[in-house]
Automatic annotation (TrEMBL):
InterPro entries xref list: HAD-like_sf, HAD-SF_hydro_IA, HAD_2, HAD_sf, PGP-like_dom2
Keywords assigned: Hydrolase
GO terms of molecular function: hydrolase activity
Pfam families in UniProt: HAD_2
Organism: Flavobacterium kayseriense
Entry protein name: HAD-IA family hydrolase
Length: 198
């Protein structure tokens, strides 16, 4: 019997174009996304480096680009957030304990809040008992300690808790801690189908 649900954010509620940042950074002159940029991104997602350090880190690979254009390219990942998903979540919040657990950074969250406006994002955040962003926690999925932190902080029982994420590596990690999981398939599944298979 599920009584708590932990949701991912990107491609579960807000639609993403995961190829767009790389394509737009390449238009600015980036030759390739490499392991150094990968590490930079992970550090930023964990809140270990400041926004300007992150942007300058990318700029080092695209000397001709300015920081504003780089930030714009980085934010091109964010698409729309359909209202019907928020309405579904609001109904769900009346029956379950809900939590948000997202690997994200301060640039993307600021852009989301700015684009959607305060009334929308406040309604969204209010559906959750607690909103967890990796950049505020200093850890990221699929590291086991990030799931454990949510479980411990709210005294959740893993077998009664469902974790929903579009990345298999994240749901696989959650499963090892005894959480129930749904690896949502982007383009095939929609979060509002959550209990259709019950």
């Amino acid at each position: 019997m599920i009584n708590s649900i932990i949701f991912d954010f990107g491609d579960v509620f807000i639609n993403l174009d995961k190829q767009a940042p790389l394509q737009n950074l390449q238009k600015l002159g980036l030759v390739e996304w490499n392991s150094e940029l990968d590490l930079l991104n992970q550090q930023f997602e964990k809140g270990l480096i400041e926004k300007v350090t992150f942007l300058i880190g990318i700029q080092n690979h695209i000397p001709g680009a300015n920081l504003i254009d780089i930030e714009k390219a980085w934010n091109s990942i964010l698409l729309d957030f359909p209202l019907y998903r928020l309405e579904f979540l609001q109904l769900l919040s009346q029956k379950y304990r809900l939590f948000l657990l997202s690997n994200t950074d301060e640039i993307h969250i600021a852009e989301f809040e700015s684009k959607k406006g305060i009334s929308f994002y406040r309604d969204f955040y209010q559906c959750f008992e607690k909103v967890y962003f990796s950049f505020e926690m200093g850890m990221r999925k699929p590291e086991l300690e990030i799931y454990q932190a949510v479980i411990n902080n709210h005294e959740l029982v893993p077998k009664h808790t469902l974790f929903v994420d579009d990345k298999k590596e994240n749901t696989d990690a959650a499963k090892t801690l005894g959480l129930q999981v749904w690896n949502l398939q982007v383009g095939k599944d929609d979060v509002i189908q959550l209990f259709e298979n019950e």
